[in-house]
Amino acid sequence: DTGVSQDPRHKITKRGQNVTFRCDPISEHNRLYWYRQTLGQGPEFLTYFQNEAQLEKSRLLSDRFSAERPKGSFSTLEIQRTEQGDSAMYLCASSSQGAVGELFFGEGSRLTVL
Amino acid sequence: RKEVEQDPGPFNVPEGATVAFNCTYSNSASQSFFWYRQDCRKEPKLLMSVYSSGNEDGRFTAQLNRASQYISLLIRDSKLSDSATYLCVVSSRGNEKLTFGTGTRLTIIP
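YS: structure for the whole thing
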């Protein structure tokens, strides 16, 4: 399967714990995005990378959230000191430069904070 | 005001009917427009881009009205398989960030 893969698919954690999600984009794609989606809402932009550079980060993203893409390939999204409001589906997407608007999404990582 | 606004629906439409959705955007600098489709419990997928001159892909027609800052999606001869949530998406010139609307839920009834 050469699509975008995310791991883990489901994560249940207790409030206050740290969680980390991993995303492996389509190999030839240099852009990688993180979005968050809650029930009944569209995907909400969190951040995006071009190669290893983080080019934009949502103002909605608190200091508890951090994302990295150290070698321009896979990316991680870490949430520290999780809160119940962090419960959501975390979607990763990738795209190739020049293909504006065509994001390929992974199946997402569902986070439940108890 | 949200950057991208859609009527969340649900729209319940009989099979074979024509259905249309509108979406409005607030940023006049928005340059690129798209419709994505999201099936229940699945990831969003690009349905079609929206061009200034309007464009058609089979039973689907997308239109852009820059003066009024809205885009539309028309589905003709609707099929049961068209049941999904349709997400309106915009981006600004030079900005690779795509902003999604809330989505409009469509159910096609046999």
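YS: worth flagging: The two ends of chain B are 37 Å apart (CA to CA).
IM: good catch. Also Chain B touches chain A at residues 4, 8, 32, 34, 42-46, 49, 87, 89, 91, 95-103 (CB under 8 Å).
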